[in-house]
């Protein structure tokens, strides 16, 4: 039924577009002849005025020349257009009238037909149901915490705040975090999370309340990445870009191994650094960082005076010490990566592969965007036959 309605509407539209074309034509001999007759009458009138002495010979000659020029121009126009319809504009209208409905029908039949099931909508049914269940559980948690005579446990309020934050309800998340922030045992993480949702709620603007929370978080724990990051954001908005950049880089330098937050720090430091002429930094300068013990400056200086054989033995002794230590600390991911690199430099392919394979197992517990995943994968592809 709906196709019949669409077809009728298309026919009506084509009629409205096509009917005017039937009456449209180019210039015909009739208006051209009529124009020529008027010009000839004007020429006769000039001659009569000359005979009566109304105009001089010079004026009559000039008028006759102008009228004859107009007759010549009109004659040329009549020859060019007589009997030849102006098909250019009409052709475009006809093509548009045919192409648009055909294209519309084809696109609608493929993408918008009522007979085609809403696949995308159906795929999101489970997601919508889960979102509704989370919202219901969140509301129940809020009621339970609010009705608790003792104010509700801090862990419950923190969970509520985190859930609200993931749902994009930053103002509600801030209310939940405020409850915990007012308690004596509130730590740096509480204040940094409060500052975060307050900033998000204001579209990235650090409000006075958020600034106070940032200062409190940094005061309680300067090593808290969240506190350092938002402190830098606050400093930049206050116009102190140099100090903000310095704070981000200093926190990166203090990290003893790779953390997921380091990527955000590098991006923010480069963004601020570009404004003040600082050279860009790279995540590769900080990740992966290793907690494995390496050669001291004294070891490096002593190695310069060794022969090739002595230097090789020195390197192997260091590798053996690292391998021995990893037997007692098998969960040291960076240590296994360093051991694999050391064996690879020495040309010991089999031990290098074994070390990287051990690191690959440990990588299953780190986030998917950890750059060490790509480093280990590339090493294994290079070493395996």
UniProtKB/TrEMBL annotation:
Q: Which GO terms describe its cellular component?
A: cell envelope; plasma membrane
TPR repeat boundaries on the chain? 154-187
Q: Pfam families this protein is in?
A: TPR_8
Alphabetical keyword list: Cytochrome c-type biogenesis, Membrane, TPR repeat, Transmembrane, Transmembrane helix
What GO terms describe the biological role, i.e. biological process, of this protein?
A: cytochrome complex assembly
Location relative to the cell = Cell envelope
List the transmembrane segments: 89-108
Q: Which SUPFAM superfamilies match?
A: TPR-like
Residues in a coiled coil are none
- Please name the InterPro entries in this protein's record: C-type_cytochrome_biogenesis, Cyt_c_biogenesis_CcmI, TPR-like_helical_dom_sf, TPR_rpt
Q: Which PROSITE patterns match?
A: TPR (PS50005)
- Lineage, top-rank taxon, reads Bacteria
Q: What is this protein called?
A: Cytochrome c-type biogenesis protein CcmH
Chaperone keyword on record: no
Asked if Signal is a keyword of the record, the answer is: no
Classification via PANTHER family: CYTOCHROME C-TYPE BIOGENESIS PROTEIN CCMH
Please state the protein's primary subcellular location: other
